[in-house]
Amino acid sequence: MAKKTESPEQAGKRNGDGKPGGDGKPGGDGKPGGETASPQVAAPEGAAPGAGAQLNVLGQYIKDLSFESPHAPQTLQNPPPNPQLQVTVNVNVASRSEETYEVVLNIDVHAKSDVGVIYNIELFYAGLFRLRNVPQNLLQPVLFVDCPALLFPFTRRVLADITRDGGYPPLMLDPIDFGRLYSQNLARGQGQASN
C-alpha cells in the first residue's frame, strides 16, 4: 500500500481541520494557514495581562452519607402504595485558602408512605475548587451555581447507587437549576434585609 508523503513545506502546516493550509490562504477559521483561533477570556481588573478566569476541580468526595430503611424488609416485600418523596437541596461554601474553596452539596431525601418511612438519605458531597482571576462580583455565582452544577451528576449517581444497593429502585433526581435557586435565595435575603 502506498503511503502519502508531504513536502517539507507542507509538513506541520495545518489549519486546524487536518488539511494543509500553509499557502497563506485563509483556512476554515478565517486566519492564514497554520494559525488557529483561540478563545480569549477577559481578565479581571488587576489581573496579569493574558491571565483569564480559571476554575479547576482539585478533587471531589463524599463527606458524609447516611441511608436508613427502618421498616425493611417489610417495605421491600410489600412495597407501600403512593410513596411520597421529599428532596431538600443546600449548598455550603467554605474558603480553604486564598484561591481554594470547598463546595458542599447537601441533599436530604425522605421517602414516606401511609405506613411510615420507607427510607431516608442524607448526603454531603463535596468538591475542592481552585478559582483564579475570577472577578469579585462573579465569585459567589461561580461558587453557588457553577461548582454545584459540576458536582451534581456525581451526586445523582451516588443517590441512585445507594437506593439500588438498599433494595429499592434507583432514585434518579431530575436536574437542578442552581442558578434559579441562587436567585431565589438572593431575593429572599434582600427581602429580609429590607424588613
Query: Mind summarizing the main beta sheet?
Result: 4 strands, antiparallel
Annotation field: number of helices? 3
Proportion in helices: 25-40%
Strand fraction equals 25-35%
Number of strands: 4
Shape: elongated
Q: Pick out the low-confidence regions.
A: 1-50
What does this structure look like?
With 195 residues, this protein is α+β, with helices and mostly antiparallel strands. Helices cover 26% and strands 30% of the residues. It contains three helices and four strands. It has a four-stranded antiparallel beta sheet. A hairpin with a 2-residue loop joins strand 3 (100-113) and strand 4. The longest helix is centred in the last third of the chain and has 30 residues, at 136-165. Mean pLDDT is 79; it is low at 1-50.
List keywords for this structure.
195 residues; single chain; disordered N terminus; alpha+beta; four-stranded antiparallel sheet
Strand and helix map with partners:
Layout: E1 54-68, H1 74-77, E2 84-95, E3 100-113, E4 116-132, H2 136-165, H3 178-194
Antiparallel strand pairs: 1-4, 2-3, 3-4
Compact description:
It contains three helices and four strands, in the order E-H-E-E-E-H-H. It has 195 residues and is an alpha+beta fold. A hairpin with a 2-residue loop joins strand 3 and strand 4 (116-132).
